[in-house]
Amino acid sequence: MRLTSETAKREILVAPVLSRVAVLSQQILRIEYPLKVNNFLQGNLDYLLRSRHSLVVVEATRDDLTRGFTQLATEMIALSLLEDAPDRVYGAVTMGNVWVFGVLEVAARTVTQDIGSYTLPDNLSELVHILVGILEEI
User: Fold this and answer.
1) What is the DSSP annotation of 16-32?
2) Minimal CB count within 10 Å: which of 44, 48, 65, 68?
3) Nearest residue to 29 via CA among 12, 41, 16
């Protein structure tokens, strides 16, 4: 199956994976979550799951993972500026069938991008396991 539109990718690939992760981790999946740090830094996060750690997921526009990761880093930094922010914010950027992870270490002020990527459907089980693990990490 070849999915070409961003809406199809969201409905067939991204939303079902994140919905399953939310059920398994017993967390609330927030979609198009509004975030306002100040008048200059505000917008909507594509997906947000929060436990002890926060997990932000960004859909890469026009299948551009590089720009998508930049957007992800910006959103993770914005989320870290909130009062109740965790000391580590996790994130993933996805084109639907490809997922790349990143992490923001708030105290060190560093964003790190995972050098590997995960593809669907081949790495579905591993991807879900990683996402649930992030949310259940103590």
Assistant:
1) HHHHHHHHHHT-PEEEE
2) 44
3) 16
**What does 52-73 look like in DSSP terms, one character per residue?**
SSEEEEEEPGGG-HHHHHHHHH
Instruction: Tell me, yes or no, if the pTM score tops 0.85.
Output: yes
Note the pLDDT tens digit of each residue in 112-123.
Answer: 999 999 999 899
CB 90 within 8 A of CB 58: no
Longest dimension (CA), the chain: 44
Alpha-carbon separation of residue 121 from 7, 106, 127 (angstroms): 18, 33, 10
**Rounded to an integer, what distance in angstroms lies between the CA atom of residue 57 and that of residue 62?**
16
d(CA 90, CA 112): 10
